[in-house]
Design a protein that fits this description.
The chain is mainly alpha-helical. Helix content is about 55%, strand content about 0%. It has 8 helices and 2 strands. It starts with a helix and ends with a strand.
């Protein structure tokens, strides 16, 4: 069975040179030696205020929502993000994330007159879109790093590896005429 350590190496290859620095550090450490796995234990320090943590949790679910498979919250992505930022990020790596969460909160209060963590899913999607399009200070820097952390946390979790994807060490014979409509899940190796 594939583990988070091996999956981190695959995620590093997927994102390439634009990889968020803490993810790259964790992936390199996972390849180099038997350092503690990133998901072992709680974060060494609290990175987020309670309001930021609630917003980060809500937004992670908007990036990878629950559908017919569990979403980011069920996969433990918020705890992964805090652990990654606490134990693998330099203080300057945290700045775009914290500033982005604060900018999204300010924009939500301005546009919707309520905290972004309490906004509807459509409102949160709109706020993430504004950030992605750099429509707020530091928006695109926040969005790209945040998206990478959510995807990395999800697809290196047990849920991401076993429920979202299907692990088949030997997926079967080659069939060049296999109908695309018959594909159930993407195979991971």
């Amino acid at each position: 069975m594939i583990d988070r350590r091996t999956a981190l190496a695959g995620v590093a290859a997927m994102f390439g040179t634009s990889l968020f620095a803490p993810i790259a550090r964790a992936a390199n450490a996972a390849q180099a030696s038997r350092v503690p796995v990133i998901s072992d234990g709680p974060a060494s320090v609290a990175v987020f205020t309670p309001a930021q943590r609630a917003l980060m949790t809500a937004l992670s679910e908007r990036v990878l929502p629950t559908t017919d498979t569990p979403g980011a919250i069920a996969a433990g992505v918020p705890a992964f993000i805090e652990k990654l930022l606490a134990d693998w990020a330099a203080p300057e790596d945290r700045k775009p994330i914290l500033a982005g969460l604060d900018a999204i909160e300010a924009r939500s209060l301005k546009d919707y007159r309520l905290s972004a963590s309490r906004a509807t899913a459509a409102q949160q999607d709109a706020l993430l879109t504004v950030a992605m399009e750099n429509g707020m200070p530091g928006g695109s820097a926040f969005f790209e790093a945040f998206r990478q952390m959510v995807i990395t946390g999800y697809y290196t979790s047990e849920i991401g590896m076993t429920q979202e994807r299907e692990y088949l060490p030997v997926p079967g014979e080659y069939n060049g005429e296999f109908p695309y409509s018959s594909v159930n899940k993407v195979y991971s190796a």
